[in-house]
Amino acid sequence: MENLDVLVLRKIAAWRREGKKALLATVIRTWGSSPRPLGSIMALCEDGAVVGSVSGGCIEDDLVYRYTGGSDKDALTNGAPPCLVRYGVTAEEAYRFGLPCGGTLEILLEFNPEVQTLEALVAALDQGQLMERAVDLRSGQVQQQPLASPLPLRIDEQRMLNTFGPEFRMLLIGAGQLTEYVATMALFSGFTVTVCDPRIEYRNGWSVHGVTILEDMPDDVVTQFRPDSRTCVIALTHDPKLDDLALLEALQSNAFYVGAIGSRRNNQARRDRLQEHFGVTPAQLARLRGPIGIYIGSKSPAEIAVSVMAEVIAVKNGLLLPENFDVSHAKANPSEYAA
């Protein structure tokens, strides 16, 4: 599944290219609890079609009603400067729009954004570029520029600036059954997934659509992949000849997550090999995750995949997981987890 922001931008660009009226909504402020984070976007077409989300659904319904058939339809039909709308100011309104208790959010609406600017943004994201989009709050004029690192949404009296990044990428080493489960979960979590396995018997049995399959040696693939801060690399073959060399390259990259399947003993043996034979430094080894996943008592490949994806998403979102979530800690202290 495509990254949601890219999907929204691609869809509204297509609507505008077809000559349809459309608005782009961005969550710019929240107070209390809110269903969607700052910078979340949705697009609304004049025919009522919606892609993306700024809430749990009720606010989207209200925007559809107001701007495709209600009192504010002219703003979309004829075009209007950007405007701010606020939901959940009162307890009654929060209940009506399905917001959490005390939740209030403010949304910036842009009417009929320029198609050339939208297409340029989508093209840059498709090429893996991190982009900043600045909207003039009076005129609606948009300026866009590449960024070296993501920035939080900012807004003042003149402009709103929002960062859009390319899709998160996942490179999986090995095309076994566990990889199929991890790949499936990664796809519906918005990752672009690539699987590398030089073993033809494993590649021939692959059954997950939407995944790029490569047959080259894993270390060469990692080098060509050029992992960046929106990339994770996970070794799943249990074969040191394939896993170790891929991890060696990945640990020298900017990948936000590098991990390998295996028991505590196997992972320690891997760390010893990487340090003794390949000169991997203690600082680099500190980045290597293994045993991977969070401890949920998983046994089956599907449950292990859930555990792995939970850890990947937590790291992606910048969370520091408690020690008792760690698989090694849990297995070393089983009495802490007894029913």
TrEMBL record:
Domain annotation XdhC Rossmann: ranges: 170-312
Superkingdom classification of source: Bacteria
InterPro entries: MoCofactor_Util/Proc, XdhC_CoxI, XdhC_Rossmann_dom
Residue ranges of every copy of the XdhC- CoxI domain listed in the record: 15-67
One Pfam family in the UniProt entry: XdhC_C
PANTHER family with a match to the protein in the record: ALDEHYDE OXIDOREDUCTASE MOLYBDENUM COFACTOR ASSEMBLY PROTEIN, MOLYBDENUM COFACTOR INSERTION CHAPERONE PAOD
Name the record gives this protein: Cytochrome oxidase I
